[in-house]
Design a protein that fits this description.
Elements: H1 14-18, E1 23-25, E2 35-39, H2 41-47, H3 51-54, H4 57-64, E3 75-77, E4 81-83, E5 86-88, E6 96-103, E7 109-115, H5 132-147, E8 154-166, E9 170-180, H6 186-194, H7 198-212, H8 222-244, E10 246-247, E11 269-270, H9 294-313, H10 317-328, H11 331-346, H12 355-372, H13 376-387, H14 392-395, H15 401-412, H16 418-422, H17 432-443, H18 448-457, H19 468-471, H20 478-481
Antiparallel strand pairs: 1-3, 2-8, 4-5, 6-7, 7-9, 8-9, 10-11
């Protein structure tokens, strides 16, 4: 396979050509002293880009957007969105640029996108910049999510700009280069719908169908099939979040993708003690995006998506609404099926087990975990050992031992497969205290903790000697006081 140098990388501008109303041509701000902090070399190879060349001046120019390849037309994407329930008709990439779409050596079409590349006309008073810490957070957590098998945008690199960014204090600035199947969002459709231009909504839907859900084009009602495809993709995605304890933190409609990928790792975190009411985001004062609310919020967001698609579903609005409501009703059973299948796998239950047996086991276990605020990741990994005969590690994590022992006896009688459990229950996730430790060190110029954390979380199922601290829960009451911040 021949790897391209950055200056010859072919970046298409299909999004901008097909949907000019949603694209503002713009250029990244110059970077005073760019310095590569972290480079995802395996991903670069997947993209067909020479990793060594990304370390050169030309490579840094690509990764910061200051020297895009010839023929590339960077754009800021325009979208709307409900943010914590309130509708903003014009949002968009205030500090981000879509450099273009690239075709990988294996034929996939992916966006190459920047965050923190400077103020655009959509910045709404922001400075358009990003600090090192939040960009490193997105790098490590998006790569951990990828390793967990959860659909996600991916981080190619983080480059320090040499520019200071003013937040609560002055912080070193950075640009994140990331890739995704696309950056189309529910908010993209909300913007098109709010414009009143049905043709724009139709062209946007056709673009999204061709890119993400091509089977919908062959359906009797393509736009209804498209909506149902997005509903199904989001039901699966959020179930997978819940199964590993991921809390997105800012599930606004402009942060929900049409592809079904996780996007925009701002105030995100991983669950410590199991509690559906857990909120880590400093800006989520009412708990709207708490861990346990994520399926409900996803369904609410999809209802807003349906509203934007109504003119495409039927000429008669009442019939369009009826069709949308009927299709949206598929979200709950799709989510429940994905959650149930995931929990069965986490518990190593045999295929074909009657739901009348499996469902009560799951319900009782989650109740036990919640009452004792059991660490989700450690507990399920310990259950794999319990399936092989050593129950003490799991027993040591629960408070109500009589109830757990009774549950354990019934579960073991079903013959759970401990080895299969180890293949789906991670040893390592980005523990919040370790993420903060790595970000603080990285901001100060020491990338060793980040490198060590990445080594653990990018092979999350493989237990390795010497990495015990990456498997351990946070010390003391860390989780009770922990907060994450948006970083803007």
């Amino acid at each position: 396979m021949t790897l391209a140098p950055p200056e010859t990388l072919a970046l298409d501008d299909r999004f901008a050509r097909e949907l000019p109303e949603l694209a503002l041509a713009w250029q990244a701000e110059e970077t005073p002293d760019p310095r590569l902090l972290v480079l995802n070399e395996p991903l670069a190879v997947e993209l067909g880009i020479d990793p060594a060349a990304l370390r050169t001046e030309a490579g840094l120019g690509l990764l910061t957007g200051t020297r895009p390849p010839a023929g590339a037309t960077p754009v800021a994407q325009v979208y709307a969105g409900h943010q914590f329930g309130g509708f903003s008709p014009r949002l968009g990439d205030g500090r981000a640029l879509l450099l273009g779409e690239l075709t990988t050596p294996d034929g996939r079409l992916l966006d190459l996108h920047l965050k923190g590349s400077g103020r655009t006309p959509l910045a709404r008073g922001g400075d358009g910049l990003a600090a090192v810490g939040p960009m490193l957070r997105e790098h490590v957590i998006s790569e951990a999510m990828h390793a967990l098998g959860i659909p996600t945008t991916r981080s190619l690199a983080v480059v320090a700009t040499g520019r200071q960014v003013r937040r609560e204090t002055l912080l070193p600035g950075a640009v994140l280069a990331r890739v995704a199947s696309s950056h189309l969002r529910v908010g993209s459709f909300q913007y098109a719908a709010a414009s009143g231009d049905v043709d724009l909504t139709r062209r946007l839907a056709d673009h999204a169908i061709a890119r993400h859900h091509p089977a919908a084009a062959e359906a009797d009602q393509p736009y209804l099939a498209f909506f149902e495809s997005v509903v199904a993709a989001q039901a699966r995605l959020v179930a997978r979040w819940m199964l590993v304890g991921f809390i997105h933190g800012v599930m606004n409609t402009d942060n929900m993708t049409i592809s079904g990928e996780t996007i925009d790792y701002g105030p995100c975190a991983f669950l410590e003690g199991f509690d559906p009411a857990t909120v880590y985001s400093s800006i989520d004062h009412g708990g709207r995006y708490a861990y346990g609310n994520q399926p409900v919020v996803a369904e609410w967001n999809l209802a807003r998506f349906a509203e934007a698609l109504l003119p495409l579903l039927h000429d008669d609005e009442q019939q369009a609404v009826a069709l949308a409501v009927e299709s949206l009703e598929s979200f709950r059973p799709a989510y429940a099926a994905a959650w149930s299948a995931g929990m069965r796998a986490k518990l190593g239950l045999p295929d074909g087990l009657d739901d009348a047996v499996a469902a009560p086991l799951v319900e009782e276990l989650t109740a036990l975990m919640q009452s004792g605020k059991v660490d989700l990741t450690s507990f399920f990994r310990a259950l794999g050992r319990a399936a092989r005969g050593d129950a003490e590690p799991a027993r040591g994590l629960v408070l109500d031992l009589p109830a757990f022992d009774a549950w354990l006896e019934r579960w073991r009688a079903l013959g759970p497969d401990g080895d299969a459990m180890d293949r789906v229950n991670p040893v390592y996730v980005p523990r919040n205290h370790l993420v903060e430790e790595a970000l603080a060190a990285g901001t100060a110029g020491d990338l060793a903790p980040l490198t060590d954390l990445l080594e653990a979380v990018t092979a999350p199922y493989d237990e390795r000697p010497g990495l015990e601290r990456y498997a351990a829960p946070a010390p003391g009451d860390f989780g009770e006081t922990y907060q994450t911040f948006c970083g803007t």
